[in-house]
Predict the 3D structure of the following.
Amino acid sequence: MKPQVLIIAPLLPNQMAQLEAAYDLHRLDKAADKAAFLAEVGPRIEAAVTVGSVGFTRAQAEALPKCKIVSTSSVGYDKIDLAACAEHGIAVTNTPDVLTDDVADTALMLLLAAARQLPQGEAHVRSGAWAKGPMPLTMALKGKTLGVVGLGRIGQAIADRAEAFGMTIAYSGRSPKDVPYAYYPTPEALAAEADVIVAAAAGGPETKGLVSRAALEALGPKGIFVNIARGSVVDEAALIELLQSGKLGAAGLDVFENEPTPDPAFATLATAVLYPHHASGTVETREAMSQLVVDNLAAHFAGQPLPTPVPLPKAAA
Ligand code: 8YV
């Protein structure tokens, strides 16, 4: 009998075909009554597949007594209940590194679009307003300071790109790193010295509201905020208010609270460049993420070391 695998959220077709060949799949994602479906198949499930926007809950861990691994097609695992996984002996894997470049590219895309006012420029051409004169001058990146909130793999890739645009790099985080950039202990202190800050920290309870109203105010009316992390990382109400009042210059946002129906105020903000949580959304990268999920499951069932395990908290005694 093939291993029994629960699909909480699907992978790309190529990888789903690999899973169908190797395992008996149970499609929770397609079940009309998910609770009834879990009650029926849950006792025999040995592994689960999900994505970052869906995650894995404590209730699911409790409904899958034989499950030993959850593999997510995402680098972020803020919607996976790691404590529940630790308590139930469930390993967790994610998909780091394969998406770093696309996410960093997206941060620079959003920064350039916000600084050079790409949406406004496109409207200037499409509307015919150009015939009446040029659009307003915009902001150059060269010579400006980019503050990275969370200098992890993605944050470092963003810094590398920004340096190529002639920007000076600074950063904030839990502790200083061995890097040639100025360190600030808080986003507020960083924002006071930066022209742009990019949120690149992991999502989750410990970074909720990390980029505060004070940090956004410190950026100021010419400052730009870019977020490719999670909507939870920034005080979103403050972000909207400061953009509306002009006390923050502009924003480039890939992530929001309440995805996929973010606060409708964002649609009214001419100084916000908006992207639908699509920083890793290329064929190449999503294929690589999906394949890493397949590879993690294959390693698990072969009794081999997991390629990309997520560190779990110590299970409560
Ligand atoms: C995922 C992401 O595509 O990797 C992450 O953490 O946010 C994206 O790359 C998204 O989470 C899928 O739901």
